[in-house]
User: Fold these one by one.
Assistant:
Number 1:
Amino acid sequence: MNVAVRTLKRKKAAADPADLLAWYDRHRRVLPWRARGRAKADPYAVWLSEIMLQQTTVKTVGPYYAKFLTRWPTVGALAAAPLDDVLRAWAGLGYYARARNLHACAKAVVERHGGIFPRELEALRALPGIGEYTAAAVGSIAFDLPAVPVDGNVERVVTRLFAIEEAMPAAKPEIKRLAASLLPPHRSGDFAQALMDLGATICSPKKPACALCPWSEPCIARARGDQETFPRKAPKREGKQRYGAAFVALRADGCVLLRQRPEKGLLGAMTEVPGSDWAHDFDLSTALDAAPRFRGKLQWRKLGGTVTHVFTHFPLRLTVYKAELPRGTPAPKGARWAKVSGLAGEALPTLMRKVLAHALE
DNA sequence: TAGCCGTGGCG
DNA sequence: TCGCCAAGGCT
């Protein structure tokens, strides 16, 4: 048997982590939080990027990451910042519990570990906002601990490689087991990033570039030609449409009325304009019951059109009302006046920016 | 454990 | 257009 045939047979037998690492050495992406050459990765930078990258694309994260690292270069600096500053800097990035946990985690690193990220998976896992995935990611990338972070990319790569028929999320334990079985004895950080790069650039959800894949030969789904059908997913039901009203109160001196949402839950602790609850059976004829109260009577004008927004678990349609008030009007309890010219610096989620844009255009 | 929690891009 | 999906964690 000649060398070429032997090589082919070996590759078909099983996926070789060395092949993936060789591919990574040639094709890895250049990313701001990634160490260059032999430089060691900064645990703070790795952690910050991993939190931001949870369910969020590299492109979206880029400017936020740069802004945070410039403003708070160390975990100690971030821990010392007011939570409100962190929330404002995070506004627009979504999943705001991440920002609250980011701040809590920075403080915990300072208080529990003297401002140094711990080098053990269990200690990392115990920090706010760090789950099994992020502990493995920070542990392997920053400290080269033998762990494999299993995210959506790795799930896709592994389910295709082994043609796992079980549907998500039930298949997760099996995926973790198989991913761990691939872990090489050295370079676990590079291996983790290689798996994610492969999933992001080659083993994509649709139209994977199998011809360029270092694991094309051992990939069972590829051999069968149904690689795009992995990972298998159980059909999910969609959330029901909800409705509500929002109130944009403008004062003659160029201020708009804002308030803060409750600490927990949907858009927790973020800023909003006053509004009604959001319900499936919202009755528009009673919308003004939810309007902020001022002394004297006030004309709320219903604007044409609506503002729509789709959350993970339900679509929302808001009717917007607008009113104009004279200078000197005090804000109702629980609300405050904010300069329209300064709205960019407020902790306003995208939904509320849509509402304000609708009312101010 | 399954539902909750944002946003932007893409086919 | 619209459903899917992206480096998940918490409860």
Note: The longest helix of chain A spans residues 97-113.
Number 2:
Amino acid sequence: MDGADTARRRPTITDVARLAEVSPQTVSRYLRFNGGLKPATLERVEKAIRELDYRPNLVARSMRTQKTGRLAILMPAMAFNPSRMLAGASATAQASGYFVDVVSAGGGVRPRSERLLELADSGQYEGILSLAPVLPSMENKLHQRTTVVISADFDDEMRGIGELADATPIVRMIEHLVALGHSRFFHVAGDGHFASARARRQSYLDTVERLGAESLGVFDGDWSGESGIEAIRSLPSDARPTAVIAANDLVAAGVVRGARERGWDVPGDVSVTGWDNVGVGQFMTPSLTTVDVDLERLGSKAMAKLIAGLTNTAPEPNDVSLFRIIWRESTAEPPPGSRLAP
Amino acid sequence: MDGADTARRRPTITDVARLAEVSPQTVSRYLRFNGGLKPATLERVEKAIRELDYRPNLVARSMRTQKTGRLAILMPAMAFNPSRMLAGASATAQASGYFVDVVSAGGGVRPRSERLLELADSGQYEGILSLAPVLPSMENKLHQRTTVVISADFDDEMRGIGELADATPIVRMIEHLVALGHSRFFHVAGDGHFASARARRQSYLDTVERLGAESLGVFDGDWSGESGIEAIRSLPSDARPTAVIAANDLVAAGVVRGARERGWDVPGDVSVTGWDNVGVGQFMTPSLTTVDVDLERLGSKAMAKLIAGLTNTAPEPNDVSLFRIIWRESTAEPPPGSRLAP
DNA sequence: ACGCAAAAAGTGATCGTTCACTATAGTCCT
DNA sequence: AGGACTATAGTGAACGATCACTTTTTGCGT
């Protein structure tokens, strides 16, 4: 019935002041910048703080200063693995002296947008970094009161697309494969609702055409391994690609599985590429060629943008690539006969 | 230079009261429970709130009520994929009316413990759920002021171990394999600093002995795929297990790779089991037998415990198993000859 | 010794809400 | 019709810290 209530009251700044025989204001001064205190006073205050094990009440401080020193990260529930991105973002924020909270919002765009508005107006956050898009109609209201940076990969008919949607590695992979002698490509795309999926799809189409290679088309999947298998099954028997560009590693694993099902050897008959550098990809047989995405840096950059907006500083430009292609066993030269095909 | 500062001042409860021609207290009453207001008054207040687009300042409210309605989740930076666990935990908390923030703390046990203490004393959280262990010395200080529930999987010489450390699925897997005719086992353990790794190791040893099966020993790995490969390489040429129990799917993938390297067929010569039900495991060849862990429920239960502690309610007992074994291609009957071995 | 500026410390008000009371109006019973 | 209640609304203080001032102390030159 009592239990937790046995706790004695938290000491306040006044308690410290009384013990140190100074005014609260002096203690406050000590807490905010260690200056303007006589050595003797300073010592008394320090001793009192230590003795009471005092820590300032941040809520009260926020109340007076109108600053919370806390940021929120709003993210879609159940996105792909966001933890690395968060790690980068929160490290950057902490370096600038901010607390970071991660608030997840389920549901679609609308409830998420409303949640964001609610957060922005709660007075608890100075800035909000949204890793998911919000309704354009909300955005106007938002920026009036709290700095909000939206850095969305996902997108449902929304304008800005984040850096994750950059699909240039697809271009480089296809170029490399063509140089190896590949001529017939096939793409298994991710869920078309995602900007990144659409960007990869488009990059695939553009690049294959630009290089004058043949495309057996695009299978519109949903990021799942099953879609990879189905994509291969859907190919007519006289159409065998020499290389399949999968939307991500999971799809790629499905593609490899599907190819084996049809008796095609990977990479002997077909090369396969993925995306994400999933842990086990390295140990599969064949190990998976993939794109490693520097999610930490991505998160860090997004957060840097938010902080820059908050302090009215210009964000430092940074054009280091976030992507790195890792070539592994699932890609090789095309089978000898393939070059002779019409 | 100005930019964000164009924002007009947020309306306060007093502004609303003035507009509605009532006292602030009346507005406050409206906000907390919609009762005790005359319909006419209620309507005036509602109208004023709508007109000003007023939202209560939660910091100020917290200040007065001494309740923040916010919880923090402290988690180790870079743990295995925590997002599913978080999803479960935050859903449960929100159902009880709490905000949930995720605060990540890098470094080891000590910095994490200090961070936790800091959080607990910041006055911003009513309860904290730590998914990582803290120093025992800190714990005493902690519980005096803020309810803290530590639900740690990881552990360095710490007492309580979380449910993740439950290794009974290992027992069931071995029993099943023995029933299939397997007789020579081998275990590749995870990092010994983790309670879960130690529990799985111990369950392996106990069960193999209890069933009178032969064990080729335990290789102490570190959860990595490389450790799986090395474990297989380390086996002398005359010692070939019929089944390998790997600490998780990544290790299992390494084991499969290592086995192939030595010319052993999986599952023809050796069966392999993993743990975690990683996405691609299903599409590997052979697809991976594994243990699916219901992380959502785990997170939800941990949070329920915290909330129960906060409200002095008894947590509802719940003994639904969090684990489910998924049998796939990587496990099968042992090779015929193996039964004849000494 | 004196004056005067700089350094150090203190005072009262305030941030936006809610709590514990008090005051007023409306209702019902005998 | 008077009194006892209940429903509704208002008042002043308080939560814990910091801000903008004011006051006291210290240091220094002449």
Note: Chain A touches chain B through 66 residues (CB under 8 Å).
Number 3:
Amino acid sequence: MGIFSKTCEYAIRSVFFIAHRTENGSRVGIKEIATGISSPEHFLAKILQDLSKKGIVKSVKGPHGGFYMDESTLQRPLADVVEAIDGNGLFTGCGLGLVSCSESKPCPLHNEFKVIRKNIHEMLLKTTIKEFNGDLNLGVTNLKK
Amino acid sequence: MGIFSKTCEYAIRSVFFIAHRTENGSRVGIKEIATGISSPEHFLAKILQDLSKKGIVKSVKGPHGGFYMDESTLQRPLADVVEAIDGNGLFTGCGLGLVSCSESKPCPLHNEFKVIRKNIHEMLLKTTIKEFNGDLNLGVTNLKK
DNA sequence: TAAATAAAAGACAAAAAACTCTTTTATTAT
DNA sequence: ATAATAAAAGAGTTTTTTGTCTTTTATTTA
């Protein structure tokens, strides 16, 4: 198990890829994205449909169509992508899976996990989708399996 | 999705429960544990069999049998329980699921996740299984759903 | 306006995780 | 020794997640 679901991992990698690949204002097709991030094409298609409905990515059908992102979306925090796919359980849920866990009825690890969750949330809130373009362009970072 | 698998959540809650419930040197049966942590009894049985094989809990069959933990195990860090069930992927794996992710071929979030993973690992290494007994005895903390 | 293109949508299939039920084995107390 | 007890083990089922394949819809270019 990772921190994110597989679906969410693909979602994050795909928005990084789309952001990087369409910096010049172009669009990129599902096949190229799937290859670029080592994901199953049709599974990724579902994820992008979902992200599209939620306004994270844009798409156009037909010749020279494909996926892209507008400038305001590129500046959104990564937390928005995670929340769109995995929900906010990672930021708010109990580390031990207790639905009733709260300040007044805490699990034993309540305070410890509060810190962890805060770390994760803050990290994802302060990172924007587009800020990784530079390193991807330079080939310093990688999105393939 | 939580940080841990459901199996691991039950494992942690059960070791907390056993530690707390057998402080006086007694043993506690699977039914009482399952009730005490709101888990499916037979599913938990499998988990405890696994923890038993790995030396995290001890068990004796027959009348007045049940589960308990010896003093040295009670002082082990929670990280040992997590690693026994979920493995060390949480501490070492790539946040974006890339098997080839490394210092020389990092994913875009490599450094960010290094911090997160370190936080989680250190927290689980410095907490011992038995240190939560006090609050459980006082009824301050809770293990039930 | 017709053909080509590419995403959207729908319907499955496989694998993994979570959960259940029954039988067996070991231990203890009578 | 025997019966009662309780964990161990085995053999499933269900649900969720992940992945595949096909058909439909929208757009563009010729």
Note: The two ends of chain A are 16 Å apart (CA to CA).
